[in-house]
Amino acid sequence: MVEDERPELPKIIAKIYPELPGSIRYGFTGPPGAGKSSLINKLVPKFRARGHRVGVVAVDPTSPFTGGAILGDRIRMVDHQLDPDVFIRSMGTRGSLGGLAQRSRDVAKILEFAGYDLIIYETIGSGQVGSDIAKSSDAVAVVLVPEGGDYVQTMKAGIMEMADIYVVNKSDRDGADYMVRSIMGMVELGEFPMGWRPPIVSTQATSDKGLDELIEKFDEFIAFQKKNGLFEKRRREQLIMEVGDILQDILRREVRDAFESGAFEDAILEKILRNESDPYTAAFELMENKTTL
After folding, report:
1. Does domain 9-228 match CATH 3.50.90.10?
2. Which of 64, 129, 270, 289, CA to CA, is 20 to 30 A from 176?
């Protein structure tokens, strides 16, 4: 119902929202092929051993041509399909450019309402389009691999600055030490007004190397935020962005409906074509409902 954006969605969220218990939300992003899904697959049983009920919202890219998506995370995380305290939901981006599907946050709210106290987001991992994860997570891990190449190029991809924790996965491969040193050099040159310097954790999902350390760093960062009053501040900033995103969705749907109804072409487009109006004026007229559609 959420993913299909049915009309009853706002009522569903309004009904469950007052009863949300406040689950912790971790985000994983990074370039394709970094092993994010494999890493999460190995982390889930460790979180379960600590008593968490785990909900995973994994986003796969949607084809711009067919609208379809290969929801591979359902296959890669099949180990947990019989555990009633683990729920994995794969979603297509459906045109979202921020790395998380438009409705990922609403799906996470429903999982939270259902009693999953730890929510894990996994983005599609395509450079700058991982940015939405910072709007939704209490802690973000950027997952990299030795084959990632020059770390300067990785910085240009627009994902490095959103990291609360850096993870160098597949650390048994050649170049892992160089990648760690490169990130360390970048961190040394960085400015961290919040006071938290993102740690670097080397992992091997296939052998469990570094996974316990990664969980410890998540714990440390959450504790650091709560101690310094940053946790609630982050949640507040995320709520502001979420309300803004919802407003954009509402406006986008209204404009789409206007186009689909043909009213835009009939009432406005012809005026523009006759040079009696212009695109900016038309947009403002749509916004202010000054024209009859």
Report:
1. no
2. 129
